[in-house]
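DM from R.C. (forwarded with permission)

"hey, sorry to bug you on a friday — could you get me a structure for this? deadline for the figure draft is monday and I only need the backbone to look sensible"
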Amino acid sequence: MSIQLKWPRRLGTRLTLSYILLLAGTTLVFTAGTAAVVFFQMRAQLAHFAVQDIETVEGLLSFTADGKLKVRDDYHNHPESKQILEHFLEVLAPDGGVLYRNDRLTNRSLGAALLPGEGIGGYSQRSGTLSDGTRVVIVSRRHTLAGRSLLIRLAHSEEPVFHALEQFLAAAALLFPLVMGAAALAGYRMSRRILQPVQNMASRAGEITSSRLHERLPVNGTGDELDHLAEVFNQTLTRLDESFRQLKQFTSDASHELRTPLASLRSVGEVGLAGNGTREEYRELIGSMLEEVNRLTHLVDELLMISRGDAGAIRLNYSAVDVFDLARETIALLEPLAEEKKQRLVLAGDQDAIINADPVFLRQALINILHNAIKYSPSGATTSLRVAKETSQSVVISVQDAGPGIAPEHTPRIFDRFYRVDQGRSRDAGGFGLGLSIAQWAVEAHHGSISVSSARGEGTTFRITLPVFLEPKPIETPKLSATQKPI
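My reply, with the result:
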């Protein structure tokens, strides 16, 4: 039966465990590395001492009268001779015969037979183990004494090195739990302190509902990642708040626009049912009702288009469009309306401006703008439509009317849905305040821009800038926002 360990759910606990595991791993690696470095340094130091001792031994060796080798310890100017006796010393003949072993080595051997090239031309170093298990570092060197070749072997015990290493590791093992415990406590407190702003934000965010979208998450002002997170959430809340406000405003405006013609239809129908009118009177009543039905149909069509735009369900069908010809067609459609008001529509500009666009939606944008120009311009006025290639990559369409102009306080909201500069007059003229919003969407769907410049009594100019695409490009249509501002 296998046991599966589950990672804690709380972020603070996970951070603390991650910190402890990382610290424990780092500490273990550091301790092992330190122990290894100290061990090898101490061994190297032992070998260095052994080399020095061999040089001392070379000056203390001598043969007795009967040909035996001995180490003199009666030199007053060689106090090191006493210390030599504390180490392991062995002197061999070239054939491997033992010439001398000190009392500490007794009958034990420092490596038995000679190794090939041992001690020739310098010092030979190696580690070994005596017959009783004592670990030593051995240094060998060839030496000539009284015309005879000798091999001097001197060894230092490594037991003090291993003992010091064991003490170091034992101390580290005792301190490790204490260090980890202190680190765990500090890490837990630190994680709680770090995550406290996140918990505050979560608590505050849990209190925000659709009716309290104006509230914001706290920002500490430290400029760190948590402040950035709070600012991003606040920006999201701002967008949501604006979207909810726009949705409420749109619903209210749409309801109002639908209520007006419905109330008119109800009123006309009640008047017709209340009396016994003639055939002509009933025809007139029915005609009035049909006018309101047409207004309702037009409003529903525009609302449907806005709804599809909001859902991103409108796909543009691109083709090469002659902008001048498209403008001419738009003027031809609206000329009867202009003639009815005794106005003139004038078209001028470049006749070879070609762009890649959807002619249906681009024509709709021009119709909405030109229709507004005709609607607000006085009798006898002239409305100019001009097409110009601004650069090799853009085409500009401008519509200039001779209307009363737009006051500066209304200009920023001229593209808002259901927004009217003159509420009563615009409704009488048959508008709903959606035409310019749809026009702006159509232009921006082509990656273009639309702007307006106007002054009271000096008319209004709408300027549409469209990019020129030499090859068809797939373009995602933007959503219709409930409040769109001119660029």
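R.C.: lifesaver. DSSP finds nine helices and 14 strands in the chain.
me: no worries. Residues 16 and 189 are 9 Å apart (CA to CA).
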